[in-house]
Amino acid sequence: MDDVGVSKAPIPWWLAGMILGLVQVLAVGLAKPLGVSTQFVVADAKVLKHIAPEYTANHPLIGSDKYQKFGYGWWLDVGLIVGAFLAALLIHRWKLQTTTVWWRHNYGTSVLRRLLTGFCGGFLILLGARFAHGCTSGQFASGWAQLSLSAVPFTITLFGFGMLTAYLVYRKIPHIDK
Amino acid sequence: MLQAIHSKKSLQLFIGLVIGIAFGFLLQKGGATRYDIIIGQLLLKDFTVVKIILSAVATGMIGVHILKGLGLARMHIKAGSLGSSVIGGLIFGVGFGILGYCPGTAAGAAGQGFLDALFGGMVGMLIGAGLFASIYPKLAEGILKKGYFGELTLPNLLRVNRWVVIVTAAFVLVALLLWIEKAGL
User: Among A43, A110, A140, B82, whose CB has the most other CB atoms within 10 angstroms?
Assistant: First the structure.
């Protein structure tokens, strides 16, 4: 199976990082800090409103305005997908794929296996993100930029358990030429 | 002028879209939408993710506080507690190590054509979000409030002027970045 190449990123890290920081500043100036995970709850809230309107209306979280509108945050998440799509397309790196080098090196080519573990992982990251009131964008990146104390314990546990889990899950490390 | 921008709803939606596109574009360009790069970071084999985040945080921190100082923006600190941050980080970390994406990079990866991010990751994320919503009423006054510290900021906690923290943090971040680069990571 052919990757688009686990090669060098298109632009150097410091350039991506600095411009991302500027995007954060722009976001704060024009609207709100960057954040991603809330909108997944919004999507659920909107669906639940249709299939269980009474439950939704009485629910302390998803009945509220914050979770019942497709606002700035929603369109930010939509834009994220579009932006990545455009960036990849422009340099001919858009490609449908399901597994990558690290994964195949450890678990073979089974797409189903990857989808199932992806599902479990995805489930946990959003659950964890909403516990912490934000994900790596909303709590970590935006939190640290605003010097919010809530970012500190989150960062420590995130990376601690992230590293431990990755170590346990990915035992074999492929050789990657950079 | 910025007040007017903040209050126009339709403009806010457009701004969200544009900022989102820029965000996704940069994540792809920096290589962060690649699962291999994220797992590589967690396994300490590839430091792209940390380098991007540290430089983004340093830039953002300075810029956001300049805006605040000029009266052009206000903070949106998320109220926190040990319960929510520690348990959230734990659960998130485990999921992160399994999936190989965070919510933002999963969305970006999906945009780039990674079907595992779309059909595995994002579907899982929607269900996880739904579970959270359903158990929220039980958690809200309990574990989510354990060790509650509200919207506390580091400068407030340390009782110093925020620029002391910012300048110190910026120095530390730059030093860390230089060290990582020098170590060839």
Answer: A140
Other beta carbons within 10 angstroms of residue A82's beta carbon come to 18
Please name the residues between 151 and 170 in chain A that touch chain B, using a CB distance below 8 Å. 151-170
The residue of A3, A61, A77, A126 whose CB has the most chain B CBs within 10 angstroms, and thus the best one to mutate to test that interface, is: A126
Average pLDDT estimate for B124-144: 90
Whole domain around residue B130: which residue ranges?
2-182
Distance from CA of B183 to the nearest CA of A (A): 16
At A91-114, the pLDDT tens digits run: 988 989 888 877 888 888 888 999
Q: Element (H or E) spanning B150, and its range?
A: strand B148-150
Predicted ipTM? 0.92
CA–chain centroid gap for A138, Å, is 10
Locate the chain A residue with the closest alpha carbon to B155. A147
Residue type, B20: G
Task: Give whole-number Cα distances, B183 to A7, B43, B172, B173, in Å.
Answer: 20, 16, 16, 15
As for how many domains chain B has, the answer is: 1
Q: pLDDT tens digit string along A137-173? A: 999 999 999 999 999 999 999 999 999 999 999 888 7
CB B20 within 8 A of CB A80: yes
Q: Which of B28, B101, B126, B127 to mutate to test the interface with A (most CBs of A within 10 A)?
A: B28
Contact A37 B129 (CB under 8 A): yes
B95: three-class secondary structure by DSSP: helix
CB atoms A83 and B40 under 8 Å: no
Work out the minimum CA distance from A52 to partner chain B, whole angstroms.
Answer: 13
User: Are A35 and B31 a contacting pair, CB within 8 Å?
Assistant: no
The burial of A1, by beta-carbon neighbours within 10 Å (0-12 exposed, 13-18 middle, 19 or more buried), is given as exposed
- Please give, rounded to a whole number of angstroms, the shortest distance from the CA of B93 to a CA of chain A: 4
As a whole number of Å, the end-to-end CA separation of chain A is 19
In whole angstroms, give the CA distance from residue A57 to residue A40. 18
